[in-house]
Amino acid sequence: MNGKEFELIAPCHFGLESVLKKEIIELGYEIVSVEDGRVTFKGDETVIPRANIFIRTAERILLKMGSFKAVTFDELFEGTKALAWEEYLPRDAKFWVTKATTNKSALFSGSSIQSIVKKAIVDRMKQTYHINHFEEDGDEYPIRVFIFKDMVSIGIDTSGTSLHKRGYRQLVGKAPISETLASALLMLTPWNKDRVLVDPFCGSGTFPIEAAMIGANIAPGMNREFTADSWDKVIPKKIWYNAYDEAHDVIRKDIEMNIQGYDLDPEIVKCAMTNAREAGVDKYIHFQARDVKELSNPKHYGFIITNPPYGERLEDRKDLPELYRTIGESFARLSDWSMYLITSYDEAEKYIGRKADKNRKIYNGMIKSYFYQFMGPKPPRKDKDNRHADEHNI
C-alpha cells in the first residue's frame, strides 16, 4: 500500500467547517472540498491514524470509497458495486451500512438505501473472492452513505465510536456540550494558554478540560482506540504506532495555565474534577462550587468561555432573564475581559445588557444556537522577552 493516497470525509458541526479545515491544513493534508457539515481532504497512509488521533473538531473520519449520481435504486446498486471494495475489505470482513442520510434527493428511504448498498457490496465481494457466503467474523468495517441532491457519497467509518468520546468523560452533567463542539468554539476565540480562562457554568468540565488539552498540546484521540487500527489490509500497524508516538512526543509538559471552572452544584464539580484527572489535565484547572454572581478575578485581559443554561425545559425559561442579567453584571465588573458564550436563548444580548461584537449561528445537535462574542481590549504589548505570550492574539 506504500505511496497510496486516501480521500477522507470528516463530518463536523454545521457552522464550524472553517475550524476543521484549518486543523486539517495544519496537520499537513490537502483540502478537496468544504460543504455544509463536512470537509473532504486527502493524504498519504499516515492520514487515517493522524486525523483520528489529532483532529479535535471532527465527529468521525470516513475513508471515502467514491461518489456518483443515483436517482433510482438500480443506479445506487450499480454505482456501489462499481467501487473497489476488495481493496479495503478482506474476505472475512464484518461490514454493514450503519447510517444513510439523504437530503433533497429522489432516494429518501434510509432503510432501503442501507439494504441496497449492502447487497451491492456483497455482489462485488462474491465476484472478487469467488464465494457465495460471507461469515463476516473478522474486523469491523461500518459503512456510511450520504445522498445530497442525488449525489451519493460512500465512506467506511475509520473511527468507530464518535470522536467526541475522548475517553476521559466518565461522568456527565445535564445538557453537556460535546467535546468536539467545545474545542471548535475555543479555537474560534483568541484565547491561548498564557491567558486566564473562566467557565462559570462548567458542568462536567468540558470547556476547561478541552482548553487545557489544547494548551498542553495533548492529542484528543491518544488514549482511545479506533475501528481502523485493526485494518491491516489498509494501514500497517507501524503507521498507527508512529502516530501514537508522535502524539506523546508533542505534549508540552513544562507549562503553567490559569483555567478555572465553576458551577453551582458541588456534585457536578466533583464530576468535573474526576474527568480532568482522567484527561491528565487536573493540575492546570481549578474547579470550585460557586455562583456566577460571585464571579471576580484579579487578573486582566482574561476570557469567559461558557455554555450557560438556556431553558431546555419550558418551566426553566422564566428564570432566564434574571440569569442572563446576572451574567451581564458579573462580566461588566471584569472591565478588560472578553466573553464568549453559546446559547439557544435568543434574548441573551438583551438581558446581558450589551450587543455582541460578533454572533455566529451554530447547530448544537438539532438545536439552533448562537455563539455570542463580546470582545475585550487587546492586552498591551509586553517587552521583547515576553512578547511571544501574546503573538497569537487576534
Query: What percentage of amino acids are in beta strands?
Result: 15-25%
Mean pLDDT metric: 93
Which CATH C-level class of the largest domain is it?
Alpha Beta
Task: State the CATH topology of the largest domain.
Answer: Rossmann fold
First-residue to last-residue Cα separation: 42 Å
Structural class: alpha/beta
So what's the overall shape? Answer: elongated
Adjacency order of strands in the biggest sheet:
2-3-1-4-7-6-5
Unreliable residue stretches: 384-394
Count of DSSP-assigned helices: 10
Count of discrete structural domains: 2
Strand segment count: 14
- CATH H-level homologous superfamily name of the largest domain: Vaccinia Virus protein VP39
Radius of gyration: 23 Å
Run of helices and strands:
EHEEHEHEHEEHEHHEHEEHEHEE
Taking the sheet with the most strands, its summary is: 7 strands, mixed
